[in-house]
Amino acid sequence: MAAAGVLHRGTSLMRMRLLFQAPRARLGWWHPTHSGRGGSEVHGKPRCFRKGLAFSVLSYLGYEAYVLMSQSSMVHADDHSDILDQADYLYGSGETEKLCHLLEQHKNSENAELLWRLARASRDLAQLSQTSPEKKKELTYEALEYAKKALEKDSSCFAVHKWYAICISDVGDYEGIKKKIANAFVIKEHFQKAIELNPNDATSLHLMGIWCYTFAEMPWYQSKIAAVLFATPPSSTYDEALRYFQKAEDIEPNFYSKNLLFLGKTFMKLNNRKMALLWLTKAKERVAHTEEDKQVQKEAQELLNSL
């Protein structure tokens, strides 16, 4: 689940961000068991293009050359495949600003696949360090609107539910604590729906695990605060979180450094030192591709030192 800057240790109910730092370059690739595009995204790997030629051209000439070629080919108004291919290439390459520029040209589209990608791109742009606080807030709410529209257009797409949940989580930073806790129920519902639509998407399972870990970790006095606001506040257990993290890893081993880290952290909470050592070591030794991976390595090392 987890999505927006993720679970900090010592999470406070009044400050926690429900929920997640979405795994970069993972959230919505085509899966053969699901109609339409948008299945499991693989960290650091561009999507498998439906056109073998497109992949070959991209490999050798890059995005700009591909755009020139695609512009010279016949593209029907109702065929979004080339746009989606370009968008997925840019996303996999980390070209956030170019991706937003491409997709914003289609912000009035009725195509859910375009809209959830636009929600993702707007959110990613909001997360960039150079984005001003005012612009970040604007982009965060825009992302939610795009995700909401995508959901209205196609509620059968698992990636739509996943990104709708992530975007709801993000706006929690700008709304009151009561709204934030209420949103936790909505977030859980849509991650569960994403998993129902595509049980083999490791990212949805991971994010659901983050949701469970968040509320399992909540201290008793914070639970009391939540109970004042809701008769039945959100709750979970470490065992439940572990099941989601483990299932994600079973489906796609080593797919995301943070899943390895949270497996280790969850086993620590369950007082299983042997398994905690195993997974924290995996997290520490996994090759770092991003800043987030480096942060995971650092935290894993600190936790190993404490065992």
Radius of gyration: 19 Å
Alpha-carbon distance between the two ends: 27 Å
Kindly estimate the percentage of residues that lie in beta strands according to DSSP. under 5%
Mean pLDDT: 79
> Which percent bin holds the helix content?
55-70%
**What characteristic shape results from the CA principal axes?**
globular
Low-confidence stretches: 1-20, 25-61, 65-78
Largest sheet data = none
N-to-C SSE series? Answer: HHHHHHHHHHHHH
Q: How many helices in DSSP terms?
A: 13
Structural class: mainly alpha
**Number of DSSP strand runs:** 0
Structure, explained:
With 307 residues, the chain is mostly helical. Helix content is 64%, strand content 0%. It has 13 helices and no strands. The protein has helices at 52-72, 81-93, 96-104, 112-127, 133-153, 158-171, 177-197, 202-216, 220-229, 238-251, 257-269, 273-285, 291-306. Helix 3 packs antiparallel against helix 4 (112-127) and helix 11 packs antiparallel against helix 12 (273-285). The longest helix is centred in the N-terminal third of the chain and has 21 residues, at 52-72. It is globular. It starts with 51 loop residues before the first helix and ends with a helix. InterPro entries: RMD1-3_a_helical_rpt (IPR049039), TPR-like_helical_dom_sf (IPR011990). This is Regulator of microtubule dynamics protein 1. It is found in: Cytoplasm, Cytoskeleton.
